[in-house]
Design brief:
Radius of gyration: 29 Å
Distance between the termini: 54 Å
Number of strands: 13
Length: 396
């Protein structure tokens, strides 16, 4: 009995099990089933020792000598948390992603337990490895992203403490990142539709607001925000996904480049930065003041264009689903004793025309916005499941 699937079943040189050629008697074949002996017959010795036409040459592997890659094992798609990364050109999106695994490693210094990140695909894993090498060994910034690149990472956190001293859940989720060049967010860009579709499927958004780039016409944040927001709202509305007329996403707004002296110095002088008294004594904006810091950034530091960014975020998203952070992908320069010094804290320097890092990076609020998004999305899902269960019980 023939196999259910035979990849060679249409091969004209294949012989039947009884030894007869299925093409015997057809034009171009001898009555006895042997191939014509001419220059084009490709005659040769068959594996069984007989003579006849050899099968066509095998098509070479498209990826020779490669380790087979298994399918991603992040759990059912319904359980996956997708995070979209958003920002204007040169707002630091690629550097943010590059610093993420380093921030995960360093997280345990200041908190209970550590987080680890691994690639769900070979490309995603290579991105993590290259990024770590760039920041820690070469001490240079990654090149800006061109186009749209999709990366999937598995992120695992320490087990949380439950009630009554019992062990709680262990956060673990798949992070689907759409790393796109800032220009893609502009109106009329040929890849904008692809990006908007990806953001529409996301559950949470990391929005990088760059106060420095926002001052320049070519990279001002509102230009690249408004166009995407209107298209995003239309897509979600058409599939009836709006919640009370607003987008359903949870959002982490990251005020980027907090380490830059043109941002950090005014913030410190205005009293927004507090400094730790232990360890590296790093400055930071307290988490509970994140929204007020962003409001100050819009009202007093940047001005009209930044206020439009704030107004758009409040118009399109539920304000209760937005959190704010002062973020730096590379952090501050530290002394040889690994302590912050306000007299000399600038991290990047120019070497042969290239921006390099003076010390190993200490990312600030790079992992925390993701941890917060995961927690808020998890709580919302648990609340919705509980509500659905109660409504189901009443119907029964």
């Amino acid at each position: 009995m023939d196999d259910l699937y035979d990849p060679n079943r249409h091969d004209p040189t294949r012989r039947q099990p009884n030894g007869h050629d299925p093409n015997a008697g057809r034009e171009g074949n001898e009555p006895n089933g042997t191939a014509r002996d001419d220059a084009d017959s490709g005659g040769g010795t068959l594996p069984g020792g007989g003579s006849g036409a050899l099968p066509p040459s095998a098509v070479p592997d498209s990826v020779p000598n490669s380790t087979p890659e298994r399918i991603p094992s992040g759990g059912p798609d319904a359980d996956r948390i997708r995070i979209g990364l958003w920002g204007a050109p040169r707002s630091g999106k690629t550097t943010y992603l590059t610093a993420l695994p380093l921030a995960a490693m360093q997280h345990q210094r200041h908190h209970d337990g550590g987080w680890n990140i691994s690639g769900m695909t070979e490309e995603a894993g290579a991105f993590l490895s290259r990024g770590m090498d760039l920041l820690t060994r070469q001490r240079v910034f990654p090149e800006a992203t061109m186009g749209v690149r999709e990366l999937a990472w598995s992120i695992q956190g320490p087990r949380k403490k439950g009630k009554l001293g019992l062990s709680g859940r262990r956060p673990g989720f798949v992070l689907d990142i759409q790393d796109a060049a800032g220009e893609v967010f502009g109106d009329g860009h040929p890849q904008q539709a692809q990006l908007v579709a990806q953001l529409a499927r996301s559950h949470g958004l990391i929005y990088l607001f760059d106060p420095l780039g926002d001052a320049e016409t070519a990279t001002e944040s509102f230009t690249f925000l408004q166009s995407t927001l209107t298209r995003l709202t239309a897509q979600v509305r058409n599939r009836q996904g709006l919640v009370d007329g607003r987008l359903p996403h949870y959002v982490s707004v990251c005020v980027a480049k907090f380490d830059h002296p043109d941002i950090f110095r005014p913030a410190a002088e205005a009293g927004w930065a507090v400094q730790d008294t232990v360890g590296a004594q790093l400055p930071r904006v307290p988490a509970e003041q994140g929204e007020q810091f962003f409001q100050w950034m819009c009202d007093d530091f940047r001005g009209a264009n930044a206020r439009l960014v704030r107004d758009a975020l409040h118009a399109y998203f539920d304000r209760r689903r937005i959190a704010y952070y002062a973020t730096s992908a590379v952090g501050f320069r530290l002394t040889p004793q690994h302590v912050f010094d306000y007299r000399d804290y600038v991290q990047p320097i120019e070497v042969d025309g290239k921006s390099c890092l003076r010390t190993s990076p200490e990312p600030i609020n790079v992992l925390e916005p993701l941890i917060d998004l995961e927690e808020r999305i998890y709580r919302n899902r648990a609340r919705e499941r509980g509500l659905a269960g109660k409504l189901g019980g009443k119907r029964r």
